[in-house]
Here is the input.
Amino acid sequence: MSPSQYPAGGAIMDELDEMYEFPICQSCGMPMETDEVKGTEKDGRRSDDFCVHCYANGTYTKDLTMEEMIRVNIQYLDEWIKSSGIEMTEEEAIEQLREFLPTLKRWQS
Ligand SMILES: [Zn+2]
Here is the structure.
């Protein structure tokens, strides 16, 4: 994806690009820096696609719509702002997520 797709959030997408050295969860967008945060397949293998919050034993842990996933992400906004140093309002974050989540595998069907 190119940052130009995100006219309002180029800086944020740059930050995300830096996180891309880790696989990101294809459901919530969380970078998976260690195997411990990766979800598990039915046979117990770690998934490279989904995190432990979203995926366990080969299935999604929660049956969410994309809008509900945005709400879940917003609950962690303060934490994310602290760790990333990026200031944004809840409205801006929701706008970002509406652009970003559809690029993930879970929301493409
Ligand atoms: Zn996830």
